[in-house]
Amino acid sequence: MMDILTLENISYCYDDKRLALDNVSASFRAGERIAILGNNGAGKSTFFQCCNGLLRPSSGKIFYKGALLGRSKRELLALRQGIGLVFQDPDSQIIAGSVESEISFGPMNLRLPQADVAKRVDQALEQMHLDGYAERAPQYLSGGEKKRVTIADILAMQPELIMLDEPTASLDPENVAALERTLAKLSNQGIAIVIATHDVDFAYKVAERALVFAGGKIIADDDICEIFAAESILTAANLKPPLVYEAFKALRSKFNLDLAMPRSIEELCACIERI
Amino acid sequence: MFIDILAQKSRLRRVNTVFKICATIILLIIAVTASHYAVGMLLAVLLAVLTIAIGGLRLREYMTALALPLGFLLAGSLALLFELSPQPNGILSVQIFSSWLSISEDSLARATLVASRALGAVSCLICLSLSTPMPALIGALRRMHCPELVIDLMYLIYRYIFILLLIHHDMRLAARSRLGFRDYKTSIRATAAIYTNLLSRSYLFASKNFDAMESRCYDTGIRFLERK
């Protein structure tokens, strides 16, 4: 399958001469679910902003659908349409006075005809279970509802890859569960999902692959189970393995189990039943 | 914020906004140029009935929205009502030192006319703002060929009112929970700190917000879908 986005030896330097991204390479394929793990200040946000074309890397190459990203506005707009970015704080993303206008902002910027915009808005509203919210004002929505609006914002752009920055921060468990279902659905539609998160339990449940950032470098890029199995990576990035993973490891060594690694509490319970 | 909530729930918000703006302007001209005090009074009553009966607001809500402008209006008319004269004249006179503060028939008529004109005009504007949410108003102004820059600023300012209000509320609460307002001196200091913080936070917020707009292909001019 063709890579949607490939970054080759990307570096980014803010004014203070500190390298926020240090020679980073990665690529993302259609329908993949990838977690970006790492501490605060490890370079995750800078990485996201480079992927979306908000920041221009100091050095390195970006390929969008196989083509090298140039400097023209047309290329940049195409990248921003194809790679959607969901911000951590919904309030810093939402600018309109009603949910419907808010979702229409992206498609309107693509200069689509009104009828197409209306169709995309309706689809996004339905996909994020926001039917009946069209005319609500964002200032009177709850945190979970605002998060859904910001994802609908991006869905209306019909991207091939969605990057979510700390999507579970400030969501209650019920909304986290709803988010998991949404992400699974989008991934089934062939949209690649990239999630930057501190929540290893969430990452372990939704992602199949993980990139580990530390000090502006990618120190690991592998199957997420392999990552949590590698002590040296966890220590270097200051990560703790997910609870389900740890619990299963303890069970496995005690009972000599030959079962597939469970990804969620439910799967873990099923494993315990079989002992 | 209170007016915004009322406008969102008014049944009149679906009425064509350009029509509402035009009607408001015409009524405003009638109210301000009226030569009889009954015109303003009549407008005030009619518009109140329109907003309450058809818009579906409560009388109490309408009066709360009207209370502040009404307060200014009364204070202003009181000043017009009295005039200073060397000897007592007119309906009522009060002696102040060597001169008289009096209400004459002329001043009474003048004050009533001005107050009723102002009341009519205020009613027009309150009626518009209680029946039209701000985004609809801005959208209509765009269709009426208001400059793009002004429109963009109006959208952003409207959104920021709520964001900054929320941040301000949270910071005040946080300061109060640490006894930041226990006496006059700490209140002054806490208020200063809060406003300093608010300024730097709003810069930060604006830059984040701009990033988010750019990441959704923002180019020039904020445009939203307007369904017929």
**Major sheet of chain B: size, sense and barrel closure?**
3 strands, antiparallel
- Determine the mean pLDDT of chain B: 87
Oligomer: heterodimer
The CATH superfamily of the largest domain in chain A is identified as P-loop containing nucleotide triphosphate hydrolases
Query: Which strand order does the major sheet of chain A show?
Result: 6-7-8-3-9-10
Can you tell me the CATH architecture of the largest domain in chain A?
3-Layer(aba) Sandwich
Mean pLDDT of chain A: 90
Give the amount of beta strand of chain B, in percent: 5-15%
Account of the protein in words:
- The complex is a heterodimer of chains A (275) and B (228).
- Chain A has 275 residues and is of the alpha/beta class.
- Chain A is built from 12 helices and 10 strands.
- Chain A is 43% helix and 23% strand.
- In chain A, the strands form 2 sheets. Chain A has a 6-stranded mixed β-sheet, with helices on both faces.
- In chain A, helix 4 (99-109) runs parallel beside helix 6 and helix 5 (114-127) packs across helix 6 (143-155).
- Chain A is globular, with a radius of gyration of 20 Å.
- Chain B has 228 residues and is mainly α.
- A 3-stranded antiparallel β-sheet of chain B has the order 1-3-2.
- The chains are: A alpha/beta (275), B mainly alpha (228).
- The A-B interface holds A 49, 52-54, 77, 80-81, 84-85, 87, 89, 91-98, 100-102, 104-110, 114, 117-118, 121, 137-140, 153-154, 157 and B 4-5, 8, 133-135, 138, 155-156, 158-159, 162-163, 166, 205, 208-209, 211-219, 222-227.
